[in-house]
Amino acid sequence: AEWRQDEQALQETLMAMNDKLMTAEEKCTDLTRRLASAEESTAKQAKRAAEHEAELCRTAEKAERERDELKDAHASEMVRLGSIYRASKTEASEAAGRVAHLDAQVAKQATLITELENSIEESRRQVESHSKQANAHAAVSAQAQEDTLAYRKNVQDLSREAMEERTAK
């Protein structure tokens, strides 16, 4: 009877440990699923950030070309203004108004380029942040898997010991 009580206690202990093992495996599976989801989200965000960065680069290049064109136009306009001034003060006054407009456009383009550069830098920081988050999730998942393996080994050892005790009795 005492042997049956010991066996029943061992069976209850093994069942409890098996329940804990299943819970740990479920947690590990959940962490693995969340890691995969985080990695997928990070990859999507990195892709969007890269696309956004590429678009910003194209826009910046276009803005730089436009700025260069405006600078060239400004230089040409200044040359033309010199001729106009010599020919007529009235025409020179009108041309000065056009030059001021071009200067304002150059200033707007310079502001746009600065904003685009800042946006590109922010995108890079976001990509780095997402990469760090993915690495942290991977570390948590790896630790959970290690813990699960150690727990399984303990359950197997206890089960083997129980069988050896039963065999010995």
TrEMBL record:
<feature type="compositionally biased region" description="Basic and acidic residues">
    <location>
        <begin position="154"/>
        <end position="169"/>
    </location>
</feature>
<feature type="compositionally biased region" description="Low complexity">
    <location>
        <begin position="133"/>
        <end position="145"/>
    </location>
</feature>
<feature type="compositionally biased region" description="Basic and acidic residues">
    <location>
        <begin position="48"/>
        <end position="74"/>
    </location>
</feature>
<feature type="region of interest" description="Disordered">
    <location>
        <begin position="123"/>
        <end position="169"/>
    </location>
</feature>
<feature type="region of interest" description="Disordered">
    <location>
        <begin position="36"/>
        <end position="74"/>
    </location>
</feature>
<protein>
    <submittedName>
        <fullName>Uncharacterized protein</fullName>
    </submittedName>
</protein>
